[in-house]
UniProtKB/TrEMBL annotation:
Protein name: Transcriptional regulator
Domain of life: Bacteria
Residue span(s) of domain HTH cro/C1-type: 17-71
Gene Ontology terms for molecular function: DNA binding
InterPro entries: Cro/C1-type_HTH, DUF5753, Lambda_DNA-bd_dom_sf
Pfam families associated with the record: DUF5753 (PF19054), HTH_31 (PF13560)
Transmembrane spans: none
Amino acid sequence: MADPGPVVPRRRIAEELRRLRGEAGRTLEEVAEALLISTSKLSRLENAQGRPQLRDIRDLVRFYGIEGTQVASRLERWTKASQSQGWWTDYSGQISDELGAHVAYETEASVARVYTIPAIPVLLQTADYARAYYRSTEPWRTSDDIEQLVELRMKRQRALRQREGQPPLTLVAVTHESSIRQLVGSPEIMRTQLDHLIESSTAPNIELRIFPFSTQPLFTSTCMYAYFEFSEDIDRDVVHIETHAGIRHIERAKAVEKYREYHDALYRSSLTPEETRALIRTVRNEQFS
């Protein structure tokens, strides 16, 4: 994977370096020439690509004349934080760079607002459901490959229960009604999965809503995506749109803002959490009994 480490520290460094260069009135070429580094290397640092090296950050701190300041201290702290390997790199042979970046954002975000169709949200799937879904939709994978991918999904779900140094992830999930009616694996697997949805959706940091068949389609109701929010003002929200062709990353502020509006519209048009659980019970008893 190209950028396996934590993504949020890199984004904070990039944001700060762009700000410092803008305030200094310098071009990329001027700063790169003064530090005897390539313009492409500086550009990568300012775009959160690759791992920042402490030596380069200290050179930039000296160049901008901010030694001993809080900004310099933050830059050094973020650089050290960016050096660690993400736990998900153990699965780098099985997942794409895009999915690796998605898991990195998911691991460090404060809130994930997701919409799924026609699958149950990944963070609320049981292992048997995930295993059956992979077998059905990606039949070329070996049993060992699938087991590793299922293990990855189960580890991702730990963020909903506890995380080191930050509160559990808050999940606001909207899923299309088709996801709870689509047979995956067997009726028994579906019964267990729907029971799990009912139980897990009562957690204080999880809100699950169903976008029902009875509601008119909305603009973003035909594709899956995740909107990641962060607790620090310096951290910009991001959107990941998932298709068969891969994950599309959206960071431009106006586009991200639009997707928040789209998700809010889906949220408002969906059943309440109580109505959602009632519908899940009905489907479980009538369709998968």
